[in-house]
Amino acid sequence: MGCAKKRINPTVANHVNRNFTAEFTKAVIKAVRYLPPPWKPNNRGRKGHDPQTVAIGCLLKVGFNQTYNGIEAHIKDSETLRQHCPVLPGHSMIQRGMKRLSITYICKVMNRVTRFLVAVRIAHSKMRVHNIIMNSFRDVAFGYLTTIGATR
Question: Could you tell me if 53 and 101 are in contact, meaning their C-beta atoms sit under 8 angstroms apart?
Fold first, then answer.
């Protein structure tokens, strides 16, 4: 029936997921700020939320595949988002924004997010390769030392 799944250290998995969440959030903010607003705010009535801030919430909902309440909790807890957006939308505003967002806008932003994440990966790849080489060298050296009876 196939191979068993390899166990991943939970602390490492949590650290990787936390880093990905922060990088993805920064990339979505950067992409939405780069593109024009998805809709123009109405001049009548009470002033609503910024369309770009609502679009960020909607795109994070799509990207993280969460419910409206889940993404509201995630947005309220996010340090990265609080630094860039002074007023954060609630779950009802994100739901209204999802109705107003077009598929083409979502595709444009996600294409730009992919470009940003690839650029970040390329920029950090030299440092990662160095760290991987050093960690593998350390593991090989530790394995050799344990086979000959020495300890760390």
Answer: no
Token duo for residue 75: 């947005």
Amino acid at position 36, single letter: P
pTM of the model: 0.70
First to last CA, the chain: 40
Sign of CA dihedral 72, 77, 81, 83: positive
108/29 Cα distance (integer angstroms): 13
Buried b (16+ CB within 10 A) or exposed e, 59-79: bbbbbeeeebeebbebbeebe
pLDDT tens column, 12-69: 667 666 777 888 899 899 999 999 999 988 888 888 889 999 999 999 998 888 899 9
Q: What are the pLDDT digits (tens) for 91-115?
A: 999 999 999 988 889 888 988 888 8
